[in-house]
Amino acid sequence: MIVELGHMALLIAFSLSVFQSIVPMWGARTNAPNLMATADVSSIAILGFVTLSFGALMWAYATSDFSVVNVWQNSHSQMPFIYKLSGTWGNHEGSMLLWVFILALFAAAVGVFGKNLPKTMRANVLGVQGWLLTTFLFFIVLTSNPFARQTPVVEGQDLNPILQDIGLAIHPPMLYIGYVGFSITFAFSIAALIEGRIDSAWARWVRPWAMAAWIFLTAGIAMGSYWAYYELGWGGWWFWDPVENASFLPWLSGTALLHSALVMEKRDSLKIWTVLLAIVTFSLSLLGTFLVRSGVLTSVHTFASDPTRGLFILAILSAFVGGALFLFAFRASRLEQGGLFAPISREGALVLNNVLLSTSAATVLVGTLFPVVYEAITGAKISVGAPFFNLTFGALMIPLVLVLPFGPLLGWKRGDIVGVSQRLMFALFAAVIVIILAYGFLERGPWIAPLMMGISAWLIVGAFAELLQRSGLPKVGLKTGFARLTGLKRSIWATAIAHAGVGVTMLGIVFVTAYETESVAILKQGESATAAGYEITFEQYQTRSVNNFSEELVQLTISKDGNVVRTGAPSKRFYPARQTPTSEALINTFGFSQLYIALGEVKTDNSVVLRIWWKPMITLIWLGSILMVLAGGLSLTDRRARIGSPKLSKNRKLGTASVG
Amino acid sequence: MAKFASKLMMVCLLICVGIFGAVAEDELASEAEARAKLLFSELRCVVCQNQSIRDSDADVAKDLRIIVREQITAGKTDREIRTFLVDRYGEFILLKPVFAWHTFILWAAPFLLIILAGALIFRAGRKQSDVVESKLSDEEEKELARLLER
Predict the structure, then answer these.
(1) Is the ipTM of this complex over 0.90?
(2) What CATH class has B2-98?
(3) Which of A113, A175, A561, B90 has the highest CB neighbour count under 10 A?
(4) HSE (side-chain half, CA atoms, 13 Å) at A442
C-alpha cells in the first residue's frame, strides 16, 4: 500500500512540475503577480510529494519488501539496517529518485529563501527548475520506475557488496547535492538571459548557491576518493576513471565559477563569462549523470548502468545544454559589460585562474570522451589513462599554483606586482627552505619531488600573506595584530584557508606519489615482514560468518623497535547471495601517513600472501579537501552571503567602502 | 543482454580488483625493476576496466608483467617494448596514447585552448583600452574637473 502511495505521489509531483514549468513564467511574461506566486506553492508541494515518494521507497527497503522488484534486486534481509537504508540509492532507479528529491529540495529552497528576489526573476528561476523537475520525473516514471511489483520472493539478491559500506550512505547524497546544487546557478543564468538583464546583485544571489553546491561537491569527491582508497583494496586514491572525471569536471568549472562570480559581484565585470560558466557547470553535472547512468563509459564505478536509458538521458542532455547555449548565443549580447581593469590586477589574476581551470576542465573532458568518439569513428579501441591526465592536467596546474598566492594580494582594477612580490618574499623563503631540507633529508625518489614540495609550501605559506598584510603584523605588535586578525571579514579567512588547503592536498599527492613503497610478503604463522620500519607479524588465521557474508581474517601485530604499536586483521569476505568476494584492507594511520595492508591468497600450506604499502603523508590529500570544505562553509557565514537580511542595508555602504 | 553485460563487468571488476590474491613475483635488480614499474603503470590490464598492470592482479596483468620483465632482461628499450605490445594487443594497451596524427586533437587540445583563450583575452583587452581612451568627451572632462575641484 505504502509503495503504491509512493508511486502515486511521484505521478502527482510530475503533474505539478508540468504546471510549474509553464504558469509562473507565463505570469512573468504577462506581469501577472498571482500566476508568478503559484511557483512558491507548487515548488513546496512538489517537494512534499517527492519526499513522500522517496520515503515510500526507503520504507520498502527498510522493511525488506521483496515484492518490490527494485528492493528484491538490491537488498537482503540479513543486511545491517544502515545498508538497507543506503541501499535505497545503491541502484539506478533509487539514485535517480534521490537526484530528483535533491532537485525538488533546491527548487523549494529558492521559493523559501528567495523572498526578496525580484518577482519576475524568482518566477523564471522556479520555472526553469520546473523544466528540470518535469524532465527528470518523466524519465523516472517512464523508464525507471522504482515501485514496480512482482510476486513476493523470500530473499533478496543482495546489494553489490562493494556498496555495503558507510561510504554509500554519505558519498552519493553529497555528490548529488553538489551536482544538483548547480541547477540553481543554471536556472538563475537562464532567467537572466530570458530577461536580458544582469547585474552585480545577480552575482550576489548566485554566489552563495554556487558556494553551497561546491562545498558538497568537494566533500563528495574527497569522500569518494577515500572510499575507493580503502574499499577497492589496492590503495589507489584517484584513478582518472571516467566516472571520477565526471564528478571532477563540474568541480573544476564550479571552482572557476566561484571566482568569476566574485569579479562580477565586486566589479560588475565578466558577466557574460560568468553566465556561460554557470551553464557549463550544470551541463557538466548533467553529463556526469549521463556518463554514470548510460554505461557509455564502463568503469569501476558504474554499478547500475543500462544503455537503453542512456539515449533518454542523452536527449535530456542535448535539450538542456543545447537549448541553454542556444539561448546564450542569442541573448548574451544584451548583457552589458561593466568594470574595466588592467591586466595586472585582482580581476586579471582571476581571469587567469578561470583560463587555467577551464582549460584543465576541457582537457579532462577531451581525454575522457576521446576513446568513445575515436571508437565510434574508426572502430578501433584506444586508451586514455592516468599517465595522460597526470601529464596534461599537471602541466596546467603548475602555473595555476605558482601564481595563486599573488591573486588575493593584488588590488582591484590595477595591481602593484612589485609590492605584492615583496610581500610574498617570506613565502618564497619558506619554499626554498623546504626544497633544501627535502633534498637533504629525503634520499630516494625523483628529483622533481622536493621542488613540488617547495611549491606546496609556497602555496600554504603564501595563502596567509593577505591575513598577515591586513593584520599589520609584525610591525604593529602582537596585540593590535591579533585584534585585527579576529576582526577581519570571514571571507578573507576563507580565501586563505581554502588556498592553503590546495597546498596541503598537493603536498600529500607529491609525498605519496614519490615516496610510496610497496612489497609483497608470504608469511607463515609467527613469521614477520618489515615495511617502512614497522614489523608486521602474522599471529593467527581465522574464519567467521557474519550476517550476509563469510570472512577470512589474518590477525596481525604491527610493532616498531620491538614494541607492539597496533593490532588488526585484513580480511577477505565472501557474499553468497551475489557469489562475490571483497577485500577489506587493514589501514593504520601513523601521523599523517598510513600503513596499508591487503590480504591476498591463503595458500594450502597455511601461509598467507600480504600486500603491504607505506603511504607517506597520504591523509594530507583529504585533510586539504576538508580545509577547502571548511573554508567554503566559513565563507557562507560571511555577512556578504546573507544579503537581504534586514540589518544589511545599513551595513552595505560600509561594506562597499571597506572593499576598496 | 544488458544484465549479462553488467554481470560480466562485475566478474571482470572483481578479477581486476585483486581479490583473488597477490602472489609474489620474481623481481629484477632494483634499477631494472624501477624501469619495469614505470612501464607497468603505463600499460593497461587489457581485461580490466581502467587499471594498469601495475595495480591489477588479473592473470593477464601478471603475464604482461612477466613479458615486460623478460623484454627488459633481453635488453630491449622502453620504446621497443611498447611497440612489441602494441603489435600484439593494439593501441588499447597504452594508457598514455602515442603522439601521432590520429591523437593530435587529444594532445593538442590543452595548448590550442590556452592559445585561443589568450587570443580572446588579448582582443577583449584591446577593445577595452579603446573604450578607455574614447570614454570622455572634452565637455565631460571639463565637467569632471569642475566636480573634482568642488
Answers:
(1) no
(2) mainly alpha
(3) A175
(4) 20
